[in-house]
Amino acid sequence: MPEENLLTTLELSLRQTRATRSRLSARLADLEAEAEKLRTELSELDGLASQTEAAMFRILSSMLGGNTPAAPSVPSDAEIEAALRRDVAKTSYNSARVESVRRREMPLIREEVEAKDERFHDRTIPQATALLLRESGGPLHVNEIYNRLLEGSFQFTGQHPTISIAVSLNRNRRFRKVAPGTFDLTIRDAAQAS
Question: DSSP string spanning 151-180?
């Protein structure tokens, strides 16, 4: 009889432990999804901040560039505002053109991709993508990365492989997002700057 009571108590404790674990696991999944959304927003804000900073530098450089270094004049508030309006108009026109070109150039996911070799069979997404980006010499869209990974016999386990690629590359500091769904190696950017 005491053994049955102990067994019942242990069984109840096990059920409670499993229920608590299940709740915590669901909460962790929700928090991870929220964290990924926040990472994406932070990345987009970083891009906007760097674009604004570059625009400000261009405006100030163009305004101060005509003056002699010995006696540079400080632009008035009205001149700065006029230059900002001109630059914003140029930037919005150029970014609209660039965005329309990017939309047209987005590679399609090929339906029937045959494996050409097994070079990515035992690699992770970041490892395989780093090789692909080095070989390509420039950024690639996640759809093209997906197609090339399949050609190298990469085995995807999720239902949305392109999302898996994007999330994996967003989380890894070796990669940087250069356009919507398009990634490049961070180190390439540093090498080209020097």
Answer: HTT----SS-HHHHHHHHHHT-TTEEEEET
pTM for the full predicted model: 0.45
The answer to whether residues 141 and 181 touch, using CB atoms and an 8 Å cutoff, is yes
The first and second tokens of residue 182, run together, are: 């398009």
**Cα distance between residue 3 and residue 5, in whole Å:** 5
Q: Are 184 and 138 in contact (CB under 8 A)?
A: yes
The answer to whether 141 and 174 are in contact (CB under 8 A) is no
Q: What percent of the chain has pLDDT over 70?
A: 72
pLDDT at 97 over 60: no
In this structure, how many other beta carbons lie within 10 angstroms of the beta carbon of residue 186? 13
Signed CA dihedral, 168, 177, 152, 109: sign only:
positive
**Least confident interval from 102-106, 115-119, 143-147, 187-191:** 102-106
